[in-house]
């Protein structure tokens, strides 16, 4: 299966590190013109500097705060909105930690929803008109295993937001399917892709880490490339008859 994206424009949010970075690198290596966006400009510069684009691919970086309508409007005004593919990676737990539900400030809940769900909605809203005009488009939202079950983080807003992202993908798939637009989600298992998740991994200790691995059929935690491979498949012509689905990429069902 030779997946190629020559002549395709791809917008990726949350692109500076981890899963987002791997997705940008993979698209560029397969010929796409990638617009990599994040609020972390320093790491975006490293992404652009070290990515090896092939088949005519390229990476351009831009600051984008997905929670800010003005930021999205400025991006569209400068870069255009005619993207063939949109991948929403921006999200995560935003440095928050587990605490009893009665102690969770409403602002903490809102901040996680703003990036994970509201951001996906607002950027999708911005790119849909051009996709409708072209009669084709692909969207992939990065959810989480937490959206399919119970979050290991224990953070209520994170689990709920990732489930909401799956529902949003399914709803948009029904709405946009008649226009030739596919919308799907990917639900990664645990990856050590940010300082938040490194702290979570360290908190388990050696015995807890081994216990986690023994629950995963493939006996390892995920790598960013595992997720980028799934995203590129869903964004490719090989997935033209797949929409409204959530692909779990987690090393197998946890026992």
Poorly predicted tracts of residues: none
CATH architecture: 3-Layer(aba) Sandwich
Globular, elongated, flat, extended or rod-shaped: what is the shape? Answer: globular
Write out the strand line-up for the largest beta sheet, numbering strands in chain order: 3-2-1-4-5-6-7
- Report how far the terminal alpha carbons are from each other: 31 Å
Number of domains: 1
Order of helices and strands: EHEHEHEHEHEHHHE
Tally of helical runs: 8
| CATH fourth-tier homologous superfamily | NAD(P)-binding Rossmann-like Domain
Mean pLDDT across all residues, rounded? Answer: 93
- Which fold name corresponds to the CATH topology? Rossmann fold
What is the CATH class name?
A: Alpha Beta
Q: How many distinct beta strands? A: 7
Helix content: 40-55%
Rg of Cα set: 18 Å
Major sheet description: 7 strands, parallel
Beta content? 15-25%
